[in-house]
Each structure stands twice: as C-alpha cells, then as structure tokens.
Amino acid sequence: MALRTSWRNTLPLIGLAVLLSACASGSKVTRVQAVADSAETPYKKILVIGLFEAYDSRRYLEKELVTKLVERGTDAVASTSMMDSKTPVTRATFLAMVDEIGADAVVVTQLASLNVDTTVKDANPQATYNIRATQYYNVWGVELTEYVAPQGVQYDTDVALATQIFSVNDKKPVWAIESEFRIVQKINESMWDYKVFVEQADVIAQHMSSDGLIAR
C-alpha cells in the first residue's frame, strides 16, 4: 500500500493549528477521483490518518473522523491512538497499524493548499455620545468621544484539504476528494476553534457515505 498522494506532488505538511479561527465558512467539495471499479465497498474496518506537521492537529481530525464513521456503523481507528508524537510518520509505521487492526482500507487527509490574506484593522472601535440641551430652542450640544484599541491583523485564509482512500487489497487509491473552505480570524479572537475539525470530519464522512464507501 502506497501512501503517497498526487496533490502538488507531496506538499509540505503544515499543521492545521495555524489555521484555526473564530469563523469557518461552509466547504466546497470536489470529487478528484470517483470510486474505482475494483473497490470492495463498503469498507468494514478503516485506519484514519491525518498528515499534518502538528501532532495535535492530526489527533483532533482523526478523532472526529473516527467518531463520524462509527456513528455511521463503520469500525474505524485513529492512527494517533496507536502512536505518540515521537513515533516516526512513515509508510512502515502505518503498514504495521493496518496489519495490527486488520484494516481493509486507509483514509488519508492532508493539506492541499493554503492562501492567507492579512488586513490591518482597528480593534473594537467604540464611541459614546453626550447630548445636552442648550439655551436655544431646538438646539442641542453633542459631545463625541471615540475609543479605539491598538490596531491588529485579521487573517482571511483559504484552505483546501485533500482526502484519499486506499484499498489494502489493491494497494492503490480508490477514491479522492478536495474540500475547500475559508477561515476568518477576527481581531482579538482566539485562533483555537475546535469546530473546524468537527465540520471537516463531517464533510469527509458524508461524502464517503454518499459514494458508498461505507455503510449508508
């Protein structure tokens, strides 16, 4: 079983942790490879692998995807449940996992592309008005006070994740999609939003199910 993918000829593995933000848009999914005729679907036991630089990013996405697959009646195991951050991320490591759990398929997700736009903005601009009457009829005095925090940077990030399924018997890819979505990190908001992992895992599981790769 080869774990090398065709996207960008093995892009650098960038941790998803740098992408997490307060708001993520819905995903646009492109089917890169339809289910191969040789695919022995639906698969019963799947090894789930996230290929990101940050171990926690791998663990979070794998955990959520396993949850989504199990909810749909498919037995699935996260690779990070069988290793730690010091375990070599190699083909041999994953092949040993396949043998240990008796997997009939492997799902691999990695970063396909990442484009970031930055904008400098004032943080939390606020204003107060003090309105008072004057000695003249229908004439009012208005005092405006503006409070502007130091400027910060807003990040608008376009992300594409590539997900591929490998057949253990055929030792080749049998299905692939790309899911594209936008993340907006607003000024002073936390970078960490676990919802990104939940949403993307759900997108992947839904398309696996609709294409008959797992039980519907």
Topology diagram in text:
Elements: E1 23-24, E2 28-33, E3 45-51, H1 55-71, E4 75-78, H2 91-101, E5 105-133, E6 140-167, E7 172-185, H3 195-210
Parallel strand pairs: 3-4, 3-5
Antiparallel strand pairs: 1-7, 2-7, 5-6, 6-7
Helix pairs in contact: 1-3
General description of the model:
With 216 residues, the protein is of the alpha/beta class. It has a single domain, classed as Rossmann fold, CATH 3.40.50. The chain has three helices and seven strands; from the N terminus they run E-E-E-H-E-H-E-E-E-H. Strands 1, 2, 3, 4, 5, 6 and 7 form a seven-stranded mixed β-sheet that branches. Strand 5 and strand 6 form a beta hairpin. Helix 1 (55-71) crosses helix 3 (195-210). The longest helix is centred in the first third of the chain and has 17 residues, at 55-71. The radius of gyration is 24 Å and the shape is elongated. The two termini are 26 Å apart.
Gist of the model:
This protein has 216 residues and is α/β, with parallel strands linked by helices. 20% of the residues lie in helices and 42% in strands.
Keywords:
216 residues, alpha/beta, Rossmann fold, 7-stranded mixed β-sheet, elongated, disordered N terminus
CATH class: Alpha Beta
What is the radius of gyration computed over CA atoms, rounded to a whole number of angstroms?
24 Å
CATH topology, by name, is Rossmann fold
Secondary structure tally, helices: 3
What sequence of helices (H) and strands (E) makes up the elements?
Answer: EEEHEHEEEH
Question: Which of globular, elongated, flat, extended, rod-shaped describes the shape?
Answer: elongated
Strand content: 35-45%
Low-confidence sequence ranges: 2-15, 17-23
What class do helices, strands and sheet pairing give?
alpha/beta
